[in-house]
Amino acid sequence: MTVRLVIVDDHPVVRDGLRGMFVEQADLEIVGEAGDGAEGLAVAVREQPDVVLTDLRMPGLGGAEFIGLLTARVPSAQVLVLTTYDGDDDVLPAVAAGAIGFLLKDSPREEVFRAVRAAAAGETVLSPAVAARVLRRVRDPAPRAAELSEREHTVLRLVAGGATNKEAAAALFISETTVKTHLAHIYTKLGVSDRAAAVATAYTRGLLP
C-alpha cells in the first residue's frame, strides 16, 4: 500500500529536502505541500492524504490550532509533527490537538520513514525526548508551587491583580524586559502560553490565594 503524504513547512529548503528523501521510497508518495497552515489545510482537504507531516511554528495558522482544524476537517489523515521545538508548550498542545506523532528535525531519515509508515497505520510515534516529556506530564500533571521562584510568584500575583508589564516593572523596580522574561518562565512552568491562562491555571493549582 502506498502512503499518500502532504508536507507543511514554511521553509522551502526543508520541503525540498523532505521531497528528495521521500522520492527514494516507493511506498511513500508526496501528493501535496504547503508553506503554512492555512494552505496546508486546503491542500489536505483537496488531497485527502494518509499522513500530514507538519512543522509547528509557522506564520499565520500553525501549531495546535492548525492540527485541531486539520483533524476535524480531514479526520482520515494522521498528523505527524516534524519540528525543531520540543518544549512542553509545543509538545503537549500538539498531542492534545490530535497529532499522532512528534519527531525532531534532527531525527535520522530512516526514523522519519518508519514514523510516517507507523502513523499511516494509526500507531503513535514519539521521539525519545518527546516521549519523556509526555510521560513526565502524565505522572505529574500539576506542577508544584515550589517550581516557581519567589520573584516569579510576585510577578504572577501582580499580573493576576491586573498589572501591566510596565506597572509590574515599576512596582518591582526592574525593567519591562525582565518582567517579560519572568512571565516566559512562568508560562513554561505552568504549561501555558499567555497571561490569562497563567492566572487561571495558577488559581486552579492553588498557586494564588
From TrEMBL:
GO molecular function per UniProt: DNA binding
Q: Where is the HTH luxR-type domain?
A: 141-206
Q: Which domain of life is it from?
A: Bacteria
Q: Which key words tag this protein in UniProt?
A: DNA-binding, Phosphoprotein, Transcription, Transcription regulation
**Domain Response regulatory residues, every copy:** 4-120
Listed name of the protein: DNA-binding NarL/FixJ family response regulator
**Modified residues annotated as 4-aspartylphosphate in this record:** D55
- For this entry, list what GO says about its biological process: phosphorelay signal transduction system; regulation of DNA-templated transcription
Which PANTHER family does this UniProt record tie to the protein?
Answer: TRANSCRIPTIONAL REGULATORY PROTEIN NARL-RELATED, TWO-COMPONENT RESPONSE REGULATOR
SMART domains with a match to the protein in the record: HTH_LUXR, REC
Under the heading InterPro entries, the entry gives:
CheY-like_superfamily, NreC/VraR/RcsB-like_REC, Sig_transdc_resp-reg_C-effctor, Sig_transdc_resp-reg_receiver, Tscrpt_reg_LuxR_C, WalR-like
Species this protein is from: Nonomuraea rubra
